[in-house]
Amino acid sequence: MAYVKGLHAALAVLEEAPERVRAVLVQKNRRDQRIAALLELAAQARIRHEFVERRQLDRIAGVGHQGVVADCHELALLSEADFEERFDHWPDPKLFLLLEGINDPRNLGACIRSAVAAGVQAVLVPKRRSAPLSAAALKAAAGAAERAELFAIVNVARQLEWLKRRDVWVVGAEGDSGTPWANTDLTRSVALVVGSEGDGLRSLTRKTCDELAAIPMAGGVESLNVSVAAGVLLFEAVRQRTGQEGAPAPRRASLATGGPPT
To answer: What distance in Å separates the CA atoms of residue 46 and residue 14, rounded to the nearest whole number?
Structure first.
């Protein structure tokens, strides 16, 4: 059982994967146009809805639900075999994101959100030593998890070697010890790898990367939040690829959705 909390996240799961939704729970006295749209989607998919007390939503979903919770089946990640089977179907230049050892589910969700916005074709997450796709992660993803291609991998280094044999350039985010991010060629097929919040990339992963990319810091700041670093690198790839044949067309972002998801 999984709870998808927040209006944007609940709308996204109803639009992208209604088969996952068992019921939609809405706080009593919450009646506006956005709630009406949500309930209309639920009705179209023959999904029941229920108006409940706020304290019930607090109990099952914690803080931050903002009056809307979708009771869902767990979001299952696809396998390594699924990833390798689909590889040739994605157009070149390919763009992948591998998240190694992300511990905070909110960072995991934010990375997935940035990946979807940047047109990433697949997000790879280690099967072990990674934050789960919990309600907090889905909330931070603001509906992007249902739109992403998410794959669980068993061995990071082995999967990166597999990608390298298929002419995918592996770029790891590594503090100030690599090539400045804007000087890294991200126009070819690339797998971007970001590490855990505290330790960054594991030693073997660093050695496996073709190149390490650095985001120089100023003002005495030692590092960026992992989801911010992932966003910087992903949108540098978008910038470099804009206008290239086969590159995903960037979508115009809405400033209204740039803050915390609701």
So the answer is: 11
Tell me the C-alpha distance between 153 and 259, whole Å. Answer: 31
H/E stretch holding 98 reads: strand 95-99
pLDDT in tens, 38-62: 999 999 999 999 999 999 998 888 8
- Who's near 214: CB < 8 A, 6+ residues apart? 173, 174, 175, 176, 177, 178, 179, 180, 181
Q: What is the pLDDT of residues 106-129, one digit of tens each?
A: 899 999 999 999 999 999 999 887
Pairing assessment for the beta strands 21-27 and 68-72 based on DSSP bridges: antiparallel
28 is written with which tokens? Answer: 């009593």
CB 148 within 8 A of CB 111: no
C-beta separation of 108 from 129 below 8 A: no
Torsion of CA 53, 57, 58, 62, to 10 degrees: -170
Taking the complete model, does pTM exceed 0.90, yes or no? no
